[in-house]
Design brief:
Blueprint (H helix, E strand, L loop, with lengths): L10 E2 L6 E2 L14 E7 L8 H10 L1 E10 L4 H8 L22 H11 L4 E9 L9 H9 L1 H4 L2 E8 L3
Parallel strand pairs: 1-2, 3-4
Antiparallel strand pairs: 4-6, 5-6
């Protein structure tokens, strides 16, 4: 994202981030409102203090928070599991970066609504459907909208601070 955003600070436990963080310690080392937007994609499901880190994302953001969570209940994931295929090392017995939580799309939506801090609102909330899947036509589209837990591979939410 660095090339698309000014004043970018990348945080991670591995690799070469600007700030190395272990989010199992649930306090972010930034002041209140330090960033216009905080973004957390496919991270919360890996950490024990999920709720505390969720709330920290809102504390350090002035205007927007963007969050994604995978939906491992989606049909494509289920079929791979049934075939005995490992999706990635995150879902295997290897210790690095293991999943701790496996929320469905519906659970993610419910959790977000319950945990959303006062003064914030949902701007956009959606399930993510892989673009190639939409080529299957209107019947697939009908099923996907009727059963989003079965077809959306991720939850995406954009949250904004309410205007006073």
């Amino acid at each position: 994202m660095r090339e698309h955003v000014s004043n970018y600070v990348g945080c991670d436990i591995a690799g070469n981030p600007d700030v190395r963080l272990d989010l199992n310690t649930p306090t972010l080392p930034f002041r209140d409102g330090a960033f216009q937007t905080s973004i957390c994609t496919d991270v919360l499901e890996h950490i024990e203090p999920m709720r505390q880190v969720f709330l920290e994302l809102f504390r350090v953001a002035r205007q927007y928070v963007i969050i994604s969570l995978p939906n491992l209940y989606a049909l494509g994931f289920r079929l791979r599991f049934l075939q005995g295929k490992v999706l990635s090392k995150e879902y295997s017995l290897e210790p690095r970066n293991r999943q701790r939580w496996l929320p469905s799309l519906a659970e993610s939506r419910k959790m977000i609504r319950e945990w959303l801090p006062a003064g914030w609102q949902i701007a956009v909330e959606a399930g993510y459907y892989p673009p190639a899947w939409w080529r299957h036509g209107p019947l697939y589209t009908w099923w996907a909208h009727r059963y989003p837990n079965l077809f959306a591979v991720a939850y995406w939410g954009v949250f904004e601070r309410k205007q006073d």
